[in-house]
Structures are given as structure tokens and as C-alpha cells.
Design brief:
homotetramer; about 325 residues; alpha/beta; 10 helices; about 30% helix; Aldolase_TIM (chains A, B, C, D); 2-dehydro-3-deoxyphosphooctonate aldolase (chains A, B, C, D); Class-I_DAHP_synthase (chains A, B, C, D)
């Protein structure tokens, strides 16, 4: 694939005419302050030149916009005033599922006190079984918003359906879950929505497929994507999923986007969450997302893996120690 | 979980009142000519009895409606006049993607002549890469419909988005693809649509998760689901996916629903499609879905794995031989 | 890598001198009636030519002797008077473990009657747990030999340790099990022993690694290797392993060696063994190896997956039907 | 399974008689200063009591000696004067393969200077391909011994064959590699040898199978086993293997044995070794084993993943920082 980075303010009308009259396919994108055109196949792209083109570059990887071949400096993403991908390691914490206002607010205050920067919580819940608790939906989003207003923490929560896009206009960061990691229409809509996106890796997706999923969002002119590793499916059953820290770091060598780890879902058990969280930040994760519940034993979902606020506080202190030993902050 | 199968024509008003006033959760379903109520948790379900209940039975597996614990006879599904799950092994064939009318009609006639009963073809295409050919969408569905009218073969084609439900009202059998195998909202909508469904297994889904996905459809009172194994993700790379014939047959031991195999996607290479197709029917598949293209080498997608019409005809003859050796027909 | 196939009866002394004085590495092998030299790296091999060389050919795959790049016709292997890799599909059957003389002889007679050509049975047993029954060892081999003498069926049984090579001089076909599939010293010793080898694929080995394991045997001038697929490790747990029929057939497209399937170990449950056996022969397996026990419920190992003699007989009749539908015999 | 821990110095003759005359199976083991008898099945074990028995306890896990159900305090293992499993995190470093004296000594001195406590190096090399460099064998062990004498670092090196046991009498710690992780005869012989063992997890072994492999060694009265996670086989190919840090820590919750991580083999690429090493110690590994070569680009094996001495020194400083942030030392 070829990427044309256009001169700032240049007249692109002749270039567009050349593209239209060629047999090349192309897509125009506004991203990171640049106007960019992705053109393929190479044989057609190579025939085109125009005064409006500042840089014409061949991109080897199948995710040109997400690749660090053209954009070498790491991308920093702002969720309100929280920056992801910079010196600070950002921690999002909160309940697996929003169950009610009190539960959500209790957790929100506790995780904020312990040092979390973002509030997580599931309103729309993708559940394996149709008879399980399916989340509060739009009402859950409202509860999160309220907890956000009270604590000042921006909210990250999961979208499951293209029909719900309007509800997510009030959300600070939109999460694409593992089961929708290749729901391409949803990726495109979330790209168009323009909000920062936390993109989970599908449990059977290669790193390359994950980065191509992010390309669906970036190619809609939304460059604010954080890649979130949450464990892959393997034969091992002593943990729920296998957190692929190597894959997360391999992604980081290929992209300018920040990376996040979710230690809760792969652990499946509270006692392993600490180890996986510490491992992830030591490896170089820019962000963590952790499940915390005031009373995990009565949680409506994932009761085995949610931390108590007390345990989360202990973990935050250990995270701070490790992160600062490696020259970063929380 | 408990299942109450209700007496035909019984007054259910007192039962409904008992359920509402209990702390049980429940879902009422009309399926296979019966009215059924799924009730949980067991401790609450056990407390309830009522004159309208014919059978009250505990179901051990997490997919009560799909389980053969309560419905022992195999389910036969009608797609227009084609019956799936009976004595005949049904073959669906056609192009990976609908590219144009001529290509589709040519293939449709060829596969019909060779013995196929259903026409397959992708209109909405889930593509790993945003810059790949994404399918013709609604126009593709119209082309399929036309080819169906000309050949008399019912059509099976994939849905990707809850917003497209209306388009699929004209389709004979709706396919849920591997990447949407746990897109639970889509499963529910397709359940409500009431059309026969070909439900592919997600590439990282266990057999139990696959059957729970089918339960999303059945619990919307749509019992017409065919389970389609299409290869799982493993470490092996000499094939594109690993066709899990053992998993397909293991599913059959737990459910009354028919099973289908897709030998094209796991093969990834034409030369292996024959072997996997023959293996699948020998193992006991009720249906096959196979990609055929008039000129695979210029196909807009999956060009490596589509059969020519000639090769498909050879395969059909071998399938007939194997199937008849085992006492079935094509 | 390069392969020099030498002229029959040619004087190789000058070639050997050239090789010794070059900086190439090489290995001389007598196989399939030819003298062959494997030479690497290519840059060095290309410099060498000699009158004794009939064919000098570059081999792309990392298993030159096992590859069908140089030897296109399928290899037929004789285990006494039983030919594997020809028109007939060969079935080996017998108990998971040899438990005593009576059990072994009873099964041997039953499987012979049903149409098996080879007797299988474990004397040395690789058990996951140190406190499980570990097999009868050398005594087990003697019992097999006796059953072989009485029934006229050649014996295939597993070797686990290089120190036991002498015991296996009396065995007709030596099996390398999945857990020793990359025990390279054992592969080499079995190569030197010169007996036909049934080489199981390691449960985490790619097809390419499996073929390289066979190359360890072939490079010791023993070309009598049958490749046996027995299921790979995947996330799916409704079967014990995932029988990779696609991988087995992919191997066959790359090698001249015959392929075998073991449907018993992946099935893990009796009810699935039939389906996997039929699938394997329909796909093109040249051989099957199946566990049969007179009383599976009291077997000392693998009691869940061993067939009764009666069930085996039913299966053999179905295998015969499928195989003959595809133009082969049992 | 039952475990009888015997009274120190008690007369066991009547117990042994009772066991012999019962229909129980049993194994007597001297371990951690105790005499222990493993007895099964439970129904038989429960019938036996005797004055010599101090504790009679049912063990739920299939690895009674390795389980922390009976031995709660962590086991510390001494390799000469180096203690593994205590407060200090132990680092073993050295070349993938011993190539010659100079290379080995150069690396040994460099890794010692940087803070490594043990010297690693391969003399017997399990290579996927028969035409690859197979290691120097016994000569390689002698070179390691010499480097050990000059630097004072104990040596850990891999055994591949039961026939080589005598050579390993001079080695300080014996490694069982991933490909021999279920070579049960080798495990037993290494148990009998009595040397400390570094037991790698097989690339397709579950944590439970890995612990059962360690039980083969412990049941030969050798309690000095360190469990080494080195990456499992998954579908992901951007790394060579998937380092299963979750599985390593899950093992630690079930056993008293120390755990080690090998970040070099799963990384496959130098740039990922640092991240995986830091992640492992942050998660709680008691030991690391890392490949270092004076000139990785010309190494005879694994040239892509070996660190230079300079890079190793940088890594050691980062490891020290992380480990000390978590209250341990190097």
C-alpha cells in the first residue's frame, strides 16, 4: 500500500482527479493534523504524482495509518484531561458491571482515592449465556456519567451495537470488547463518532489482525485508539485466558499507538490479578484496566476476578513502586 | 436451569403470576410447537408448580433449548423445500463474494447442475483489512435473489449488522459468520427475524460457547438453527484454520440441531477442500457449505480456496459415493 | 539445502574428497535404493560437481529426504507382508496397554477377525502421572510377540527410551509416541535400528516440525516411516485433542511418506471414535490405529476411549464401505 | 491419593507389611527431611493406620509431593552456594550453545560482572532439524565446567538422553528442556541423580501436567526442582512462543517449588527479551534464565534472541530496580 501525506493547505483538486481517473483504489483521511491518502495497489499508486504530495511512501504492513513506519513518535491520547501514552501510566478501574448507583459511586470514589485516573464499568454486557445478567444498558451509562461528575474521572465503557451510537456521545472513551474486535461495522461507526477508543484484542486475533482492526477506526479519521491486550485463547485452563504480554509489546514495536493491559479477565481469579498487572507495567504497558467491586462475592458478573477496594489500593502502591523504578509515574 | 414445558392450550395466567411474584428469573419461548418457560436459579424454580406445566425438568447444560436433554429427536429444518437434518446431506455452494450478476448466475447454474441444493454467496463481507473489497451489500443480496429465482435454489448469505435486518427479510437462510459468533445483539435480532439461521462457530469458541450462542436465537422462539463448524484457530499454519470435526460431532452428541461443515475456509487451499469435505460427511455432517467461483484466480476474495465448477462436480460425485456408503443421500 | 543423488555404482571417492576439503557440511544416506548426499549451505553446495552425481537438486523444504520435491511417487512400506501406502487402507488395532496374555490374545483374535492387519498394544507406557500404571515393559513386548505368532498379525508398539533399543529388535514396527516426537536421540536410534517406524506428531508440533522429525529417521538411512496424526492441543475441551485432518492431508501434499490417523486419543470418548475414523479414511489416510479392549470399563488406561470388539467390527464394516466408495480397499 | 508422613526414626516394618498385604499401591519417598509414603486408591489408603504414621492426609491434586497442600512453606533450593526460592531473584545467563572455550569464558565473565549468579549454556542441543548444529556434547560440558571454575558460577545445562547420566554427575544443575518435558524415563533418571533440576514446561503442557512431570522427579526422592516457564505454543506468531506468566504464577499458587522464567525463547527477538524478563520478575518469578552471546549475529543457534553482554548489563540494572521496588534483591 502507498501513503501520500499531503502538503498542509495544498490544493488537492488535481490529485483527486488523477486518483479518480486512475484504476487505483484510495481513501482520504484527516489524522494527526495531516491530510493523508491511502492508495493501492502499489503498481497504480506508483504512477501518480502531484504537487500537493509532501511525502509518498510505501507502507509494508497492512495497517498503514497505525504503523510506525510513517509516524515514528508515539501517539498521546487525551481523554478529557487524562493523557494516555505519555510518561504517566494510566489506570482505569471500576466494576465489571454497573449494578446500581450506590455500588458504582462507592467504587468510583475508592479507586480515585487509590490513584485511578479513569472510571471503567460495563453498562452493555456481552454475556456468553442468554440467561445471564445482561447489564443495565442506557441507564447504566447514565449512572456512570453521574459517578464521573461526582469524582471528576472520565468514563470508559463498552459499546456492543451500531444502533447504540447516540448513547455513546456522552461517554468519554468508548470500549470495543474482545467479542466485537472484528465487528467491522461497529469499528467504523466508532471511528466516525470521533471519541477516544479502547480497542480490545479479540481472543483469537493475531497482533497483525488487531492492528488492522485499529486501522478501521483510524481510516475514519479517528486517531485516538488505545490497543488493549486482554488475554488470548489457549489450551491452558488454570487461568481464564493467557495474557499475551509478549504480543502486547510486539504490537508496540510496530505501532505508534499506546498499549493497555487488562489483567482481570485473563486472571479469572483475584489472586493472580496483582501479578499480571505488575507484569504488564514492567513490560511497558501505557495503561491498565482493572475490575474493582465493593463486594466481589455478590457481584452480578465476574465475581471471581474483581478486586476489593482494599486490595486495589495495595496493588496501586506496588504499581507505583514498579513504574517509578522504571522511570515512569502513575 | 429448569425448563417447564407447558400443556398445549393450558391457561398460563396463574403460572405467570407465580413467576412474577417469585424471585426467579424466567423467559417464555414458543418453540417446536411447544410453549416452554426457562426458569433460574434452580432453588427458585423448584418452588414453583402449576397445573399448566406438563413437564418440569432440570437441564444440566447451559443451553437448555438447544440441548438434547429435553428434545431427543433430531430437529429438521426447512429452507423453502430443502430439508436439513434429515436423511439427505444438503450442499450449499456458490462464490465467496457476489461480484456481479453474471458471475453469480454462472456459478449458481453450475453448482445446481452438480447437485447443490442451496446457493451461498457473500454480499456483506467481513474483511480483516479496511482496504479490501467489502462486498456489494444490499445490491449483492438482490443479485443472489435473482440467481435464486432463475435456478430455484434457496439462498444463504451473511448478515453483519443489526441495522441490516430489513434487507434480510428477502433471504431464505441467514448466516452468522465466525467474527460475529458472539455478537449477541445480532444473534437476538436474527432470532426475532424468524428465518432459518446458519450459525458459524467463532474461531476461538468452545463447543459449549457455540451452543450457548445458538441458545440466544432459540430463546427468541426461533428453533431453525444449523450449527456450522468452519475451523478454529490453532498454532498450525499449513492450513488457514483447523477444521474441528471432532468438535462438530461432539456438538451433535449434545444437541438436537443439525450440523454443517465449511471445508473451504479452513483449507485455505483448493487441494485440501476435497479431503475436508469428504471427511466432514463421513463423520456425520448434515450439510456442507463450499465456495465455488467460475474463475477462482481472479476472484475478489479468497481466490486460493474457491473451487472451479469442474472440480466441484468431481467433489460432488465423491460426496455422493461416501454418503451413500453410509446410508444417506445427497 | 542441496541433494546430490549419486549414480548407481559410481566411485564416490573424489566426491567425498571434494566435500571434505570444502567448507560445506554434508550427510551421506542410503535410501530407497539410492545413495544420496545432503549438502549445505547452498552457496557451498553449488560449488561442487563430480562425475558420480546423477542429479544435483536444490530442496526448498527443510526436510529434503522426506519431501516429495525429489521423490514424487508415494512410498510404500512393508511391515512383514502388510503394505502401507498402497491401494489398501491398513488398520492396526489392539489394546491401549498390554495388561496380560489373555486380554491381548482375545483382542488380537477379535480385531483380526474384523479385518485388522496389524496388532497394536502398549508395553512401555508414557503416563502423565508417576503413580499411574506404567505398562509391563519388556514382558509386554513378549506377550505381543506371542499374540502376533498366534494370529499372524505383525506388531506395532511404542519405544520410550534409547536404552531399550535391543528389546525392539523383535518388534515389527516401532512407534514413536507424541511425547517423544522431538526426542531427537530416540529418533536417530530408531532410524539406525532399521525397522519400520510409526511416527506420531507431537501435540504441539507443526506439520513442518513433524516432517523434520521424520527426517531424523530418514537421514539414518531408514526410509520406512509412516506419519501418524493423533490430535493436537487446542483450547477445545469437548474432545481430548483436536484431530487435525487438514494437517494430515497438508503433510501428504509435501511428502511421499504414507499417513496414518489415530482416532482414539483425540476422541477421548468411545462415541466419537467412529466418526473420526471414518473422517480420516475419507480424507485420504493410508492407515488407522485404533484402541480395542475386551472390557473397556476395567481397562488399566484410557478406559473411556477404547472400543469393544463388537463396536470395532461395526466400525470396520463402515470403514470398508467408505474406502471402497473412494476406490480403495481394506 | 493419600500421603502418610512418617514419624522421624519410627520403625516402619509393620506399616510396610500392612501395605504389602493390602491391595493398595504405594511409593516410599525420602524428601525434605521426611519419610513419606504415597498411597492409592483412597479407598484402600483409608483402611491403613499404623503407629509410624505422623500425618495421614488426602491430597486432592494429582501431584502430592509437589503440592503445597502438605508442605506450605516455599522450598529453597541450593545450587552450590546459590539459593533459589528465597529473597534473592537468581539470574542464570550464558550462551544458547557452547561453541568453544573462548566464547564461553568471555560470556561467563561478562554475565558474572553484570550480576548473574549461574552460568547457562547448551552442550547437548535439541534441534528441530537434523542438519543444524547439534552441540558439542560431552566436550561442551567440560568447557562449561572450566568456565565455572574460573568464574566461580555454578553451571546449569541440558540433558537429552538417559544414556548421558554419567556425564551430568559433574554438572551443578541439570536442565530438562521443553521437548523432553514428558520424557518420563529421563525425568526419573534425573530424579535418581539427585542434582538440582531446572524443569522446563513442555510447549503444550498444562500447568497441571507440568507439575505432574515434577512429581516424577520428586517421587525419586529428589526435591530440588525449579519449574521453568519458557513459552507455550499458541496461534500468535509475532513472538516465537507465548510466555505464560499467568500460568507460571498459577503454578506458584499450587506448589512450594520455586518458579523460573525464560524470556529468551518466547521472545525470539532481542528487543522483546527485556520486556519479558522485567514482566516475569514483577509477576513473582524466583529465577530468570537468559541467553547472552558475545556476538549474537554469528551465533551457531538462536542468533535472533541472544543479548549482547552490554544489553544484558542494561537489563540487569532494570531488573535490580524492579525487584527492589517489590522488596526483593538480585
Amino acid at each position: 500500500m502507498y501513503m501520500f501525506v499531503l502538503k498542509s493547505g495544498a490544493d488537492t483538486s488535481t490529485l483527486m482527479e488523477k486518483l479518480k481517473s486512475s484504476s487505483a483504489s484510495y481513501k482520504t483521511v484527516d489524522i494527526y493534523g495531516k491530510k493523508v491518502v491511502i492508495v493501492w495497489p502499489d503498481s497504480e499508486a506508483e504512477k501518480i504524482n502531484d504537487d500537493s504530495i509532501e511525502i509518498s511512501t510505501k507502507v509494508k504492513r497492512p495497517f498503514p495509518l497505525a504503523s510506525n513506519e510513517w509516524k515514528k513518535e508515539p501517539t498521546k491520547i487525551k481523554v478529557k484531561d487524562v493523557e494516555i501514552g505519555g510518561e504517566k501510566v494510566v489506570v482505569a478501574a471500576g466494576p465489571c458491571a454497573v449494578e446500581n448507583e450506590e455500588q458504582t459511586l462507592t467504587v468510583a470514589k475508592a479507586v480515585k482515592r487509590a490513584g485511578a485516573s479513569l472510571l471503567r464499568g460495563g453498562a452493555y454486557k456481552p454475556r456468553t449465556n442468554p440467561y445471564s445478567f445482561q447489564g443495565l444498558g442506557e441507564q447504566g451509562v447514565k449512572i456512570l456519567k453521574k459517578a464521573s461528575d461526582e469524582t471528576g474521572m472520565p468514563v470508559v465503557t463498552e459499546i456492543m451495537d451500531t444502533r447504540d451510537i447516540d448513547v455513546f456521545k456522552t461517554v468519554d472513551m468508548v470500549q470495543i470488547g474482545a467479542r466485537n474486535a472484528q465487528n467491522f461495522n461497529l469499528l467504523r461507526e466508532v471511528g466516525k463518532l470521533g471519541k477516544p477508543v479502547l480497542l480490545k484484542r479479540g481472543m483469537a486475533n493475531t497482533v497483525e489482525e488487531w492492528l488492522q482492526a485499529s486501522e478501521y477506526i483510524l481510516s475514519e479519521s479517528n486517531g485516538n485508539v488505545v490497543l488493549c491486550e486482554r488475554g488470548i485463547r489457549t489450551f491452558e485452563k488454570s487461568t481464564r485466558f493467557t495474557l499475551d504480554i509478549g504480543g502486547m509489546i510486539a504490537a508496540k514495536t510496530m505501532t505508534h499507538l499506546p498499549v493497555c493491559a487488562d489483567p482481570s479477565h485473563p486472571a479469572g481469579k483475584r489472586e493472580l490479578v496483582h501479578s499480571l498487572a505488575l507484569a504488564s507495567v514492567a513490560a511497558g504497558a501505557d495503561m491498565l484496566i482493572i475490575e474493582v467491586h465493593p463486594h466481589p462475592e455478590v457481584a452480578l458478573s465476574d465475581s471471581e476476578q474483581q478486586l476489593t477496594p482494599e486490595s486495589f489500593e495495595v496493588l496501586m502502591n506496588r504499581i507505583k513502586a514498579v513504574v517509578s523504578a522504571l522511570g515512569r509515574k502513575v
